Amino acid sequence: MNTVPVVSAISNYQICELEDDQQAEFLFNTKDNEILNGQSAMTVSYYESQSDALNRINAINKNASYINNSSPQTIFVRIENDTDADCFATGEFTIVVDPLPVFNPPLDWFICDDASNDGIHTFDLNEKITEINEGVSESLNITFYTSLNNANAGANAIDDLEYTNIENPQQIYARVENGSSCYTIAEFGLNVIQAPETNNSLPLEVCDEDYDGISTFDLTISEFDVLNIRQDNIVVTYYENEDDLEAQVNTIANPEAYNNTSNPQTVFIRVTNTISNCYVNIPLDLIVNLPPPLNEVDEVIFCETDDSRILFEDITIQLMDDTTGIRVSYFENQTDAITDQNALTTEGYVYANPVTTLFVRAEYIETGCFITKPFDLVINPNPIANTPQNLELCDDDDDEIMDFDLSLQTNTILNGQNPSMFTVTYHEDQESADLGDNAIDTNYLAFDEQIIYVRIENNATGCYDTTQFMTIVHPLPIIDIDDVVVICLDALPLTLSADTGNANDIYTWSTGASTPEIEIDNVGTYSVTVTSQFGCQTSKDFEVIQSEPASFEVVEIVDFSDPNNVTITVSGIGNYAYILDDGEPQTSNVFEYVSLGYHTVTVIDLNGCTEVIKEIVVVDVPKFFTPNNDGYFDTWHITGVETLPGTTVTIFDRYGKQLHYLTHTSLGWNGLYNGKEMPSSDYWFVANVRKDNISFEIKGHFTLKR
């Protein structure tokens, strides 16, 4: 059994008319896929009537263009099974011819080129849209293209409607579409008509003579720049503004003698081709260049110089505030200044008289505009700064700084010049003296060999001279003698020196001696005065006292109230200090908290005599013992006795009965007497302590506790 085809709803076939006749060319094979809607082994054919479709007669050639008979028009469709033509179905759809858009065809565009004559211009295509739409009722969509193919394809449309042509002439294609999406291509030409061939005009420049910025110009001179080749049918006119140029009104009547109204000023040239009426608008700048400005100075005044030469650059500073871009030269007469001949040397002018008339020419390098002016060169004499001797003082506190009265030099510096006409100032450096700045007070704290700079200035002219001198601070002789000098009785006589190391110093001792050093045997008050070659003097009073090395014994103390103390007993007339081992010196002769064992005691004479050193030993005696065989304090003996060979200790009861005898090698008393325990009580001892060849006795008591 064969499948009967199915005909679904078929969409209308709608295209645009070919001409303005409601006819178009339809190609029906383009509808096959839509009609079959996925059915296979089926064939589609097209007919002008339902009867033809049913009878399968007068089929339309679907592969060839079909021109409609009317619009709209119904087309009938037959779908039949490829294996059985009797298995078929019919359907229908409508073909519609849409009208082409109605519009005004655009005209070719003609425009005058500008002065560049490059054939390039920017066209506002919005104007063509307005032209195409003029009087049209339907809404049109208009796009522009540079080629016909792009216009038909609707591809690569011109985006910027401010369009600059790329060739001259150039065709532009307008695609005009209506609401039915039908379109027509209309084309128009872009034509840039050549304007008169011109160049930009160089500014017209003249030099002013009276600084008012107004002068007379021949505007026609600019035509040599503007029209550099011969052209026919050309008219040149001049205007003061562009509005007048465009309107061709208020033409400048006498361009050969035109007075500018402002400076700078721009006027406008219109160059017109009388055939095409194309013209070029060219701005022309009018510039009145002023001469360099000179100060209102009739005299330039200088102080005399060492070489009688005034630099022209220094003269220029008085005549002009700014010389940027200006050539300045000087002459001895007005004619040379105007003609720029015989200029004076640029190094400077050598004057021979107090007043000389010279002429300056100031010329702008860029414009060549210049001005000349006479002036008097006036030379004022300088005062004379006479050089004084150095100021010298003796130091008063060894810091090489002293208060100097600088005004003591003023009369010498003036040397007879009227002090009411001149001002003398003192300065710390040459620059300040030259500038007259930072003057110092005449009561001035100066250091040794400091240079003081002096300026003497004429109060009327400001001319000045400078000189300098030094401040000298002579050191005082240094006497290295203490206020108190000690004579050691073991080192007589005392040799005392006041030598300063300066061979020319003079020494005067209270003893009458005049040598740098003397010998002294006796105590008393002495003095010495040292005078330097500059008269600086130092005196020294001192006292001579006696002293001697110490002679001392050490009292060995057995301190039952641990720790131990050591007392040093000295003899001698000196003042002494005491040192135990490597400790600090002390004025007390008692050392506290001394550890057991050997120590070194040093006695120093504070007046400088020889120190004495001895070695001592410190022993200790226990305060109690407890002979109960518990391992703690079971015996009693002098602590450290084993280091003191020959030392013996005898122990007694309170009644003086000898109970025990110990040597330095004994282990100590165990509290027994003849094998019997002694009761708890206080007991006494006598220790004969020996150290080397020295012996001493120690007595005391201790407690036995049970």
Give an overview of the whole structure:
The protein has 706 residues and is mainly beta. The protein has eight domains: 13-98, no CATH class; 109-193, Immunoglobulin-like (Sandwich); 204-289; 299-380, Immunoglobulin-like (Sandwich); 391-474, Sandwich (Immunoglobulin-like), CATH 2.60.40; 484-547; 551-618, Immunoglobulin-like, CATH 2.60.40; 624-704, Immunoglobulin-like (Sandwich), CATH 2.60.40. The chain is 8% helix and 42% strand. The longest helix is centred in the N-terminal third of the chain and has 8 residues, at 126-133. The chain is flat and about 175 Å long.
Please give the largest β-sheet.
5 strands, mixed
**Residue share in helices?**
under 10%
Round the Cα radius of gyration to an integer and report it: 67 Å
N-to-C span: 146 Å
Q: Tell me the number of helical segments per DSSP (H or I, 4 or more residues long).
A: 10
Number of domains: 8
Which strand order do you get reading across the main beta sheet? 43-49-48-44-45
- Outline the low-pLDDT stretches: 557-561
What portion of the residues fall into strands of 2 or more residues?
35-45%
Number of strands: 49
pLDDT average, as an integer? Answer: 92
Q: What characteristic shape results from the CA principal axes?
A: flat
Secondary-structure content class: mainly beta
